[in-house]
Amino acid sequence: MSSLSHGQQNNDDYQAATRVFDTNSLFQCPLCRKNFQDPRILCSNGHTFCLYCVQHVLPDDGILKCPICKESRHFDSVNDMEQLQKNYTLQTLKRAEHHRMAPLGICELCNKKSAYGRCFHCRSLACFKCMNEHEQNIVHEQTKEYTDLVKIRDKLNENISQWDKKLIESKHNIRTAIQADKEKQIKKIEDLEQALYAQLDDLCQNYSTAKNIKLQNIKIDVEKESKTLDQIDPKNWSISDRIHSSQYWLNLQRNFDEQSIDFIYKSTSLSPVNHSYLGEIHLKPSNQENQSLQQYKSSTFDDHLRLIPCDQFVGRQHIIKTKKDSKALFNQSPKIHRKNENNNQAKQGENNEFTTRRMFRTGNRQQHISNEADQQLEDNTPLTPRMPIAPIHLEDYSKKATQILTGPNEADKFLAPKAIAMTDTNQLIIADTKKHRIIIYDLNLKTMRGIKGFLFPDGLCLAKEQYIIITDRHRISKYDWFYGKMVSFIGSKNEGCTRSSFSWPKGVAIDNNYVYVCDSYNSRMIALTHQMRYENEWLVMRGTKKLDPQYISISTGLLFVTAWQRIKPESCAYNAGCIIVYSTDGSAQRCIDTDIQSCLNLSIPEGIVCDSANQLILADRHTSKILSMNNDNQQSVIHFHGDKMKAPHYVCFSSDQNTMIVSDIGNNTVQFYEKQSQ
C-alpha cells in the first residue's frame, strides 16, 4: 500500500513539474515545425533536426551551419548525412509523452478544454492556457501577501521600538488625570467643609443661650436660688424648707432636661449612590435624644447601679425598667417587638420615657455580654420544618404555562435558576445560581428583589418563616432572608472532604432540628445540628458504585434522595439516576430505580418533593418532565410535560396549591402552571 501511494505521489509531482510546458514544442523540428521524422543530432550541442530537413538545406559547398548555434559541419554528399547520430532519447520521450498526455479531465478553471495537469498550489485541474494565467494570479497574490507581511513586520518593529516611549506617555497622562481628579475632589471637599462649618455656626447661634428664652429663665432661676441654697445650714434645715428646695431644684433639673441640642453630624460611607467623603448635619429624632439622655443618666448613676437592685429606681421618672420587664423585653424578637409597639401607641403619651428608654447596660463589659447573649439566642433558634403539603395530583394542572419569569427585568435575566421554595405568605425564593444571588418574588404584589453576596447558591430549604438553609458552592449557611443577614455557616470557599469542608453541596432539608445536606461531588450525605455543626455522614452508593446525591425531601422520618452518576456527556445518562431512601441515621432502606412496567424512567432526577400522602414529585431534566409516584406503590407513574419545559430542575407549590411552580435551567425561566377549572 505504501509503495502504491509513493508511486502515485511521484506521478503527481511529475505532472506538477511539467504542467506549464507545452511538450509538443519539444517534439517539433525547428526547421519544418512538424513532429520529428527520423531525428538526427547535427552539432555538438545536441540540436536535433529531421534528416529530411537537413538534407534539403545542405549547400553546394557541403558546409552546413546549425540553424540554432551556427556551429559548422562539413558533409561530402547528401548521403553522407545519413551517418548523423539518431536522437534515441527524443524518440523515447516522444513515445512516453504519447501515453502520459492523456487528458485528466475537464479544466476546472474554464470548464471547456481538457486538463493536462494540476496546479501545484491548489491541485486544481487546468489546461495549458488557464494554467499559465492561474500561475500568474497566484504569483501576484503571493507577492501581495509577502508585501503585507513585510509591512506588518516593519510596523511591529516600529511599535516595539516606540513601546517604552508610549508607556512613559501613558504613565504621564494617567498621573496628570489623577492629579486633576485629586484637586477636584479636594476642592469639592473644601467647599463642602466650609458649607458644613457655616451651617454649624448658624445652628450653634440659634441654639445658644442668648437665643433660648427657656434657658435664660432657667439661668436666672439658678442664679436667684443659688444664694438661698448657699445660706442653708444642713444641720438646722427645717422639713418645710427642705421639701421646698428639693421640689424647686428638681423642677429646674426637669426643665433643663427638656432642653436639647437637636442636631448631630452623621458620617456617610462611600457607596455607588453617595460619593461624598463628608457627612451631613441632621436634626436629632426624639427617640435618639431620649437615648442620649438615658446614656447621660446612666453614667451619672453608674456607681449606684452596680450596688443597688434595678427595681429600687422605679421612682426616678421610670428611667430604668424592673428586672422582670427588662427580661421580658430581652426575650422578644424584633418582629414581635414592632408589633407590640404598634399596638401600644395609645399608651406612649402616658409612659413615653418608659417605652422609649427600653434598657441600658452599665458599662462596656455588660454591653459585650448582652451582645454575646443576643448572638447565642439567635444561633439557638430551633429549625422548624414546613408541614408536608397536601396530596398533589399532577393531572389537575394545566400543561400550558400561565406565567413565565425570566428575571427582574429585560436587562437582568435569570442564569441557571435552580432550587425554589414558597413561604406561607406567598414569597417565592429562587436560587439564581450563576447570577450569585437569591431572588425574592412576591406572588401577591408581583414585585421582585434580590439578595447578593453569594457565590453559587444551589439548594435551599425553609427553616422558619424568615430563615432558610442555603448551599452555596462549598458552604452551607443559615440565612435570614427577611433581614438579609447571615446567621451561621459551615464550610469555606475551598472544596474538601472533611467534617468542615465540602464539594459542591446541593440539596438540603431539615428534620427534628437537624440539617441533612447532599454533599454532591463527595458522594456523601451530611447531617448537621441546627447550629451548623457536623454530626454524621454516610456514602451514597448503588451497589458498588458511588453516586452524586442531588436533592432531598424528608417525610415520616425517611430521607428521599435523588442521585445519579456523573456521566459526560449527559446525553449518555439515560437511566443513570435513581431515588435512594434512607433513615435519618443513614441506613439505606431501598432504591427506587428505573422500572419498565411502571414506565418509570429516571435519567437525571433533580428536585424532589414529598406530600402528605407519601407521594413523590420530582423533576427530571433529561426527559423534560415532572414525575409523580407513590412511595409505597410505584405501579402508576404520572408524567407531566409543560409546554415551556426544556430542562426542569425543581418544583414547588403555592400555599393554596392552586399553582405548580417549576424552575427550568434549559431556558433560564421560572414557570407557573395553574390548576384546571373544574
Automatic annotation (TrEMBL):
Listed name of the protein: RING-type domain-containing protein
- Name the CDD domains for this protein: NHL (cd05819)
Residue ranges of the NHL repeats are 414-444
**Stretches that traverse the bilayer:** none
Q: What GO terms describe the biological role, i.e. biological process, of this protein?
A: proteasome-mediated ubiquitin-dependent protein catabolic process; protein polyubiquitination
- Would the keyword Chaperone turn up in this protein's UniProt record? no
**Keyword terms of this UniProt record:** Metal-binding, Repeat, Zinc, Zinc-finger
The RING-type domain extends over 29-70
Q: Which residues form a coiled coil?
A: none
Q: Which InterPro entries match?
A: 6-blade_b-propeller_TolB-like, NHL_repeat, TRIM-NHL_E3_ligases, Znf_RING, Znf_RING/FYVE/PHD
Question: Which Gene Ontology molecular function entries are recorded, alphabetically?
Answer: ubiquitin protein ligase activity; zinc ion binding
